[in-house]
Amino acid sequence: MCAARALTDTYARVTLVERDQYPNGVGDRRGVPQSRMFHTLIERGRREVESLFPGFHARLDQARMPRMSYGFNVALMSPRGWSPPSRSPVVRGLFVTRTLLETTIRDHLRETANVTIIEAAAATRLLAETQEGRKVCRGAEIRRRDTGEVFTIEADLVVDASGASSKSADWFADLGLAAPEEETLDPLLTYGGQWMKLREGARWPTGWWWTHGVFIQRVPPHDLNGAHLMRQEGDLWLLTLVAGAGQEPPMDPDGVAKFLAGLRSPLISEMLPLFEPVSKMTGYRLSKNRWRHYERWADSLDGFIAMGDATCVFNPNQGQGMSVAASEAGILRRCLAQTTSPRELPALFFAKQAKFKANPWRLAISNDLRFASVEGERTAAVGVFNWWRVQLGLSPDRAVQQRLAEVDLLLRPVKDLFDLRIAARMVYSRTVAALRPPSERAPSFGSHPPSLPTIFT
Ligand SMILES: Cc1cc2nc3c(=O)[nH]c(=O)nc-3n(C[C@H](O)[C@H](O)[C@H](O)COP(=O)(O)OP(=O)(O)OC[C@H]3O[C@@H](n4cnc5c(N)ncnc54)[C@H](O)[C@@H]3O)c2cc1C
C-alpha cells in the first residue's frame, strides 16, 4: 500500500492487486497470518508512513490507539535488566494491532484518486518481452480467486510487494531468468499469540505502574524464551510467547502458565489471573531471515522492482519489517523523481534499497547470532559488532543510549554507533559508574521492576 501511494506521484494510474478479499473494517485475513501476533511500527516507519499518508497518526489516535512507552507505562526487562521507570513517555513507535494499522493505511489509500484496488485476485505470472536483447516487463497476469477468471494488466512498472510468500523466483524461471542470489539465517523462533481482556471487576494493584504492558526479552546466548503482554486498542491485550531453538510454545493454559513462570521474571504469570482469554492461542513458526540480493542480480528485468518482505524478511524481534517496507516506498518516490526510465529505474532503486537494507539486516543477523542455538557464520566482524553494542548498552550515558535507540529505530545508520564522541562518552560514563558504590551502580536485575517511589523519592 505504501508502494502504491509512492507511485501515485508519478503515474497516472496505479493498480493494487490483492489476493485476499479485505475484511469489512478491522479484521484478520489469510494473506497476513502474522497479524495475529504483536506488531510495533517503530519510529522510522511511523515517520515514513506519515509522510506518505499525512494525518495517519492522528487517525490512529482517533481509533483510541494506546500510547505506550518503556519505563513509563510498559515494564521492559531487556538483557541489561529492567529499563528504569520514567516520569514521561518517550515515543519510539506505535504499539498498535497490525489489523488497525493496515485498515487505517487502506482507508487513506482508497481516498487517493488515481489508485484502483482489485481484491480477491492473485498475480500469477509476469508478462515480458525481449527488446534489444533485454527482457522488459510489460505487466502481469491476474487470476480472480472466486471465478477463476484470468486477465492481464499492462503496466509501465510492476512492483512485487507480495510479502514473504512472493513467487517472483518462479515467475523469473518462466521468463528464462535466474533468481537473485539469496542469503538466509534461521533464527529458529516460534511465536504463540492469544487475545486477552481484563476480567470483570479485576483490580489493578496500586504500585503496578506498568499499566500498558510487560515485555520480558530473551537473553543471549542461552536464555531462549521471552514473552510480552501488551495493551492494544479496544481494551484488548495481546499475550505473545516467543520460544527459541525451534521449540513449540505451549498452547494449553497450564503449559502457558508454566512457560511464563519459567521466564527470568515471573511478572506476566503473576498478572495472568487478572485476565481472561478471548481467543485461542495461535502458533506461528517464523520464516528465516532471507535477503534476495536484487542489487547484484546477474539477470535483469526492465520495468520490474520488488520490495518489502518480497525481497528481505527479518526476524521480527526488532520490529523492523513494516518500517523497512515503508522506507522503501520513500526510496522509490525519490528514485522516481530522478528517473522513470524502465531500464534505469530498477538498477537505481535496487542499489539504494540494498544500501538502506544493509542496516536492519546487520542488526537482525548479528543479534540472532548471539544465540548459541542459531547456526550461522560468526565472522570476526559480527563478533566485534556484537561486543561493541554490548559495551555501549552498559553505558549509563543518555547520549549513548539515545544513539543506540536511534540506530535500532532505523533513524540512523549502523555506522553511527562507531562515532568517536559516542565511544568517548561510553568509556567516561562507565569509568565514573565503576567508581560509585555497588548499590548505586547496577541496573535492576530483580525479578520485578523497580518501583516508582524508590526511584523518585
Ligand atoms: C510473528 C511476526 C511478528 C512481526 N512483528 C513485526 C513488528 O512488530 N514490526 C514490524 O515492523 N514488522 C513485524 N513483522 C514483519 C512484518 O509483518 C512484515 O515485514 C511486513 O508485513 C512486510 O510487508 P509487505 O508489504 O512486504 O508484506 P505483507 O505485509 O506480508 O503483505 C503482502 C500482501 O501481498 C498479498 N499477496 C501475496 N501474494 C500475492 C499475489 N500473488 N497476488 C496478490 N497479492 C498477493 C498478501 O495477501 C498480502 O496482503 C512481523 C512478522 C511476523 C511473522
What distinguishing features does this structure have?
alpha+beta, 457 residues, eight-stranded mixed beta sheet, binds flavin-adenine dinucleotide, globular, Alpha-Beta Plaits, 33% helix, three-stranded antiparallel beta sheet, 20 strands, 14 helices
SSE layout:
Blueprint: H1 2-7, E1 14-17, E2 40-42, H2 43-52, H3 56-62, E3 74-78, E4 81-82, E5 93-95, H4 98-110, E6 115-118, E7 121-131, E8 134-144, E9 150-154, E10 158-160, H5 168-174, E11 182-185, E12 190-198, E13 213-216, E14 226-231, E15 237-243, H6 253-261, H7 267-271, E16 275-277, E17 282-285, E18 289-292, E19 304-306, E20 312-313, H8 321-338, H9 344-368, H10 380-393, H11 398-408, H12 420-435, H13 438-441, H14 452-456
Parallel strand pairs: 1-6, 3-13, 10-19
Antiparallel strand pairs: 2-5, 3-4, 7-8, 8-9, 11-18, 12-15, 12-16, 12-17, 13-14, 14-15, 18-20
Helix pairs in contact: 2-8, 8-9
Main pleated sheet = 8 strands, mixed
Using the coordinates above, name the CATH class of the domain at 190-285.
Alpha Beta
Uncertain parts: 453-457
> What CATH architecture label of the domain at 190-285 applies?
2-Layer Sandwich
Categorize the overall geometry: globular
How far apart are the first and last residues' alpha carbons, in Å? 49 Å
- State the helical fraction: 25-40%
**Proportion of residues in β-strands:** 15-25%
